[in-house]
Structure formats: structure tokens, C-alpha cells
Amino acid sequence: MMTYFPEEVVEHIFGFLTAHCDRNAASLVVQGVVPPAARLRRNCYAVRPERVAARFPAVRSLTVKGKPHFADFNLVPPDWGGLAAPWIEAFASSPTAAAAGGRGGRAGGGGGGAPLEELRMKRMVVSDECLETLARSFPNFRALVLISCEGFSTHGLAAVATHCRHLREIDLQENEIEDRGPQWLSCFPESCTSLMSLNFACLKGEINVAALERLVSRCPNLRSLRLNRAVSVEALSRILMKAPQLVDLGTGSFWVDHRSEAFHRLISAIERCKSLRSLSGFWDASPLCLPAIYPICSNLTGLNLSYAPAIQGSDLIKLIRHCWKLQRLWVLDCIGDKGLAIVASTCKELQELRVFPSDIYGAGSATVTEEGLVAVSFGCPKLHSLLYFCHQMTNAALITVANNCPNFTRFRLCILEPKKADPLTNQPLDEGFGAIVRSSKGLRRLSLSGLLTDQVFMYIGMYAKKLEMLSIAFAGDSDKGMLYVLNGCKNLRKLEIRDCPFGDGALLENVAKYETMRSLWMSSCDVTLGGCRALAAKMPMLNVEVINERTKAKSRGSPSDFHKVEKCVYRTIAGRGTTPRFVWIL
Amino acid sequence: MEGGRAGFVDDIDNLKATELRLGLPGTDDDDDNDKMEKTKLTVVAKSNKRSLPEADEAECQAEDRSEIDTKSTAPASKAQVVGWPPIRSYRKNSFQAMKSNSKEAEGNGMYVKVSMDGAPYLRKIDLKVYKGYKELREALEVMFKCFSHGMDGCNNNEFAIAYEDKDGDLMLAGDVPWEMFINSCKRLRIMKGHEARGLGSSP
Predict the structure, then answer these.
(1) Which residue from A135, A148, A404, A442 has the least number of CB within 10 angstroms?
(2) B111-195 in CATH: which number?
(3) pTM across the whole model
(4) CB contact under 8 A, A74 and B83
(5) Which CB contacts under 8 angstroms, 24+ apart, belong to A158-163?
(6) What ipTM did this prediction achieve?
């Protein structure tokens, strides 16, 4: 007899069911015991949306992820898929969902309506039409979070603002949103007073500042507000005067004449925000404007200056000295090793550090090297999450970092030049990364770079037992490398590989492994079409996709089995439906 | 703006640097077939819908030629790799926008003299620093505030911004798009009091 299980347990149980078992039967059994508040997370092609909606009609929170991670870096063609519409429509029109909504009792409006309250989407293609459907179909809708999505415009936002009466959160992170006018902010009705979080930092166009100010005035629970570049400092000051309770702020354009009245008004406004813990934005920020935030720096736990390239090392240092409570810091590499040393001596509570490159295309000005990272490792013992773009790294440095910080859960190192060796010894960085995986037993996510042989994969297979996601580029010597990982990393869920000499041998040796994984991506490796076909034949429950853009360039007969391919493999029990011309399902 | 364009012209001329390759910088492709395939894959893979709306024409051309521009000082054999370094398009696009803005400013600041009748001395401002007429007006207001009191016996904040254009004519600022204005403006003149009346004080 199945008693109440939380969703995570249900998913865990599912994981043990083999491909040949009837998952459908299992999930029908489970249906009745999933509590309505459960959050569902799905890859958008792992299962058909209609089935999810039918099986979990009362679900209130849904997360769907679309394109593979490497789509962020232009490795997936734009028309690949990841459409949001089928999901929204499935939940909007599911009769059981509507019934579930009706049972809950709806105030105002007959026929109930689906009870979906929260929708989170990542790397999906979202249209204005489906945002309109969403807005009209879910009367209790509260939270919309879109990350790295595209395909919609400010008209879609207007629909959400207009029809969702209980909106608490609109969080738009790094989406491509077509600007079709600033009216959407005016679409929030006067009766909307429930907003707690509003993030439109990625919007490129102008906005209706007056409407924004009125909205902020009537939402006393607003905790998080992230503005876009169109919002001037003057407007920011006025908004802050109306919302001194803010905890998280993304500024708009952070430029004003520092000798002006407007600058002094900004200082006063910021000073009043005693609850402010996290700052971001700083578009167009000039160093002369930074002193405006000094009064509240000592309260900050989060700071994102990674979009402010005009703020160089010495100004960053002056600022960081005030921020001794920082837990999360995102900066550009113009902070330099010296700046990172100051971070190390000031920010003893630091848990997460991201250093982004400011000059991608050349050997630019001040950047960071292994020295900066080593300094931080000495000074910040709580560091567990790292994303570090640098021009060079040494084994000695990595070993030191590994010794100082044994608590990494996420370690992503990107040496900008592919296959770059340790500059001190000219050796590969196998030993350095080996030290990291050996020391950080809780490591869940790892990205490698620099010159690496099969040896590093042997270490990873041996020590990285909790590893769930691994990203590899320009590394390894032979199939052995990939096999060390597939055979050794028990908890591996996502493996993404580009430009490595792994071929069909590695792909086909341990096919059972893919059953326990969520996805595998291989591009520009030595896998052939024949290998992919063999995989698909051995593992019929897997969806093996080949993305071959040559078919776009010229239509041909099917290429030979020895043809090297781009590829993506992921688990599915449903099949994909429509596919673009350049995607072959094997 | 001219400075920015020159940089891209250099890159377009330097064809080797913009040659599309999936291979590593400095490596040669032995197999011609592979090279062809890789080139083709790169060509199609590079089609990036997320291009900047405000990118000027030279930038667009350079983007079409290669996924990523090479700095003109990079060695000729260093080619760029698709999708490397692994940075989201959103961030890359933001940087390109900011770079082109700041390059233009550093390259040739557009300094023009600003005069106001009755003020004992002139000022100079860099038109590149402002994003539009509103910012310019606000800056001028601040700059000349100390001279405003007591003019015409009243505390009159009304002023009009006039400028001398390439032809030497005195024009009222605000009629043409901002970009056009900063390219044709040679000198600014602040007109106050009775001169400003009727000209409309908001550009």
C-alpha cells in the first residue's frame, strides 16, 4: 500500500524502473498519492505534456526545460524545438485539470479552471499566444519564471499582467524578448497589489516609468525588483523612495553626473533601503557613481557587477572593502588578481564566486590568473560554488585550491584558450583537476578546460562519486577517457562533450548507463552515424537524435554510416512529435 | 564611430583570421573532407538569431563573416571556435553593445564648446557621454546653474538649447534624431530669458 510520498521520492522510485517495465502502469498507481502541492520538473521531450497533465491534474507548480545546455553557446540550431505551447495548452485544456480546479472552489467565474499557479521554463520557445493562453486559463496563476527563453514579446507580458489577478512573481532572466512597446506595465490593473518579485532586466526597450512607479507604490510586499537599462537614476531614486522595503534590487542605467542633485537624491534613496541584501544591474555604471551604494554595502550578501565593464580593478577594490558580508559575488575579470586578493581578505563569508571574461577575443588588459583563485581559496573557506574564466591555470594552484576548499559542490573552470597546458610545467592539468575531485567529495557539477589527457577522466571516475553533471571540451586522448566517466560516476545525470576524440567504441560500450542518466550530448567528436544507429537499436527506449546541419545546406540522400555527426541523446518514454528537418530520430 | 568602423575593416581584410574553422587555433586540417564538413557545420551553426538590433552595419557584416570577430592585434593563425568560450549569447551581446559604446567614446570624444550669454566663461562637454536630449539638457542645467540666479530679475529655469551646425547656422536642438544631432553639432549655445521664450524649452 502506497502511503503519501513526496514528489522527490516518487521520482526516485521511477529511477529504479527499467526500460522494459511499464512506467505508465507505475505512474497511474502513484497518481492518487501525489499531493497537489507537488512540484513537477520535466524535460520537455521526456514525456508528452498531455500525459503529465492527465496524470497530475492538480499540480500547482511546473518546471519545464527545453534545449540542451550547449544551446546557450550556439551549438544547437535555432529551430531545434523546445516549444512551450504544448505544455501550456495541455494543462489549460486538460479536463481533469479543470475539474480539479473546480473542486477547489473558485471565486468568480464558472467552470473552475486549471489550478496551475507557478510555471518555470528554461531554454524554451515561448510565444505571445501561449502566454495569452496561460493568462486566461489559470485563474490562480501566481509566478512566471522564464530563463534563457525566446519567441515572445512585450505583448505576451501585457497579457499576463492584464489577466492574472493574483500575480506574485514575474522573473525574466536573460531572455530574448521582442520589444513591442512599453504598454505592458500599464496593463497591471489598479487592483494588483500582490507583486512580490518583478524582474525585467533583460528587456531591451523603453518602459513606462510612471506606470512602474504606480505599480511599485501599490505593492507593499515587493521584495525583489530588477529594472532594465531604460530606467534612469532619477527614476530609480523615486522608485526606491516608494519601496524602501526591497531586499533585492537590480538597478537600471547606473549613470548620473556625480556632482548633480540627482546623484545626492540617489544616495538618500538607497540609504533608506535598510533591508537591501542583494544588488545587480549597474548598466553603464561609471565608477564615480559607485559611492552611492557604499552606505548599504555592509549589509549586502549578493553583488553582481558582471555587466559593468567600466568599473575597473581599483574601483572594484574600493567597493569590495565595504562588502564584508558577501556570500555571492559575480564580477568581471578586470577585478584582477589584486582585486581577488582583496575579496579574499574581506569577504570571509563568500560561498559563490563567478568571474566572467571582459575581453573575450584577445589577451586584453588586466585579467585573472591562477593567483587570484588561490588567494580566494586561502581567504574564503566557505567557498563551494565557482565559475572562473581565466587565461591560465597551473596544477600547483589547483592542488592548493583543492586543499583549502574541500567543499566544492560546483566547480567550473574555463581557461580561455582550448588545450592550454600548465604554463609552469607544460604539463596537462590532470593532476590539478584530480586533486579537486579527490578533495571535494560532495562535488555535483564540474566543467573542465585546458590540456587534459585520459588520466583526468580516470581520476573523475575514481573519485567524483556524487558528480551529476560533467562538461568536457577539447580533452582526452581516446575512448578510455569517456569510459572512465561512464563506468565510474555512479550519480552522473548529464554528460556534455564537445571536440573530444571519443568515438563509437566509447558510445556503445556501456549503453545501460544511459538508462540512469538524463541526457548525453556529443558534438564534434568521433561518433559516426553508424554508431548512433547501433545505439538506437540497442536501446529502443532512448531517444537518439542526430543534428546534422548539412541537410539544411543541401538535401542529400542519407549519408554513410561513417559520417561523423553532431548528436544528442536523451531519455524519453514518449517520443518527440514534430522534428525539424535537420534532426533525425533514429 | 569612425574609429570603430576602421577596426572592423581591418578584420574583414584579414581573411585568414576570419576563416571559419572548428579546429583549434594553430592546428592545420590534414583531411580536406573533414575541413569541408567542419566548415559547413560551422557556417550553419553560426546563424545566431540573437543579433543586436542596434548593431551598426559594419558589425553585422563582420558577424556574417565569422561567428566572433577577432581582435585586429591577434596573430593571424588564431581562429575563433564556435561556442567558445562558453558564454551565453545574452551576455556576449550585452558586452558587444557596451564595447561599441565605449569604443566610440574613447576613440574620439565629441567635445564642443558651450556658451551662455552673460556667463563669464564657456564650458566644454563631450556629446558622446549623453544618450539623448534629455540627459544633455539635465547636464547643461547643472553646469550653468550657478549663472542662472538673478537673470532678468526672475528665477527663470526656462532655457533653450541652440547649436551651430556644420553650415554655421544657428539651430534649435531637438528637431533631428540624436545621432544626427551629435554628428552635425559644432558648438552649443544656451539661450535664456526673452530669447528662449517662444522657442519651446523642451527639446
Answers:
(1) A442
(2) 3.10.20.90
(3) 0.73
(4) yes
(5) A158/A183, A158/A184, A158/A187, A159/A128, A159/A131, A159/A132, A159/A134, A159/A135, A159/A187, A160/A131, A160/A134, A160/A135, A161/A185, A161/A187, A161/A188, A161/A192, A162/A135, A162/A187, A162/A188, A162/A189, A163/A135, A163/A136
(6) 0.81
